[in-house]
Amino acid sequence: MTIKAVLLDLDDTLWPVAPVIQHAEATLYTWMQQHVPNVTAQHDIVSLRSLRQALVTTDPRFSYDLWALRHQLLQNVFRQYDEDVGKADQAMAVFAHARNQVSLYPDVAPALGVLGQRVKLGTISNGFADLQAIGLAGHFHVSVAAHQFGCAKPDARIFHAACDGLGLAPYEVLYVGDDLLLDVQGAQQAGLKAGWMNRRSLVNDDPRHSHVKPDAEFKDLHDLTQWL
């Protein structure tokens, strides 16, 4: 197996995502309490999340463009409660800034420097984290985000786009992510090798994805470096 490049997932692969989203939603809600009080008089974070989940089914775009989904939800509730719809752009800027305040796993910064000396690096993400704002963009030759590209993992097109950006065939590329279906199975079906980033030492006994067999399994990026 000759691997010339490694593509990485972002959320829950390079940083834990749950605390990031919780922080971003809390930061946004605090901003809304000050700037759109009519909305927060009627909704809390949980009810807004429920509205957003219901909105997903109303437009195919929302299945891959999470920025547009959140923006549309804000526009809807601002309009419903007689707030300035134009404030949705300001609200999204507040959310995005907080969304990019991630805490990298301890291995990430040192390992990326080593990995980048051995192979080309890139990323594919279904989220809308900004690698430039986070400070990691310089490590990667290509970064493909679902909301900009127009489809999300596990669609083969997003994997192929990243390979094209690297100038490599899919079989020359290893994709590493934490989700067995979106990341591992998706990459393998697109012709890439796939590694499972299993930071929590999970056992793959869930019948929904027990059929998925990663080409490799890693506990962190140092493990990936040694495997290469």
Automatic annotation (TrEMBL):
The keyword Transmembrane does not apply. Its cofactor is Mg(2+). GO terms for molecular function: hydrolase activity. The keyword Magnesium applies. It comes from the Bacteria. Keywords: Hydrolase, Magnesium. This is HAD family hydrolase.
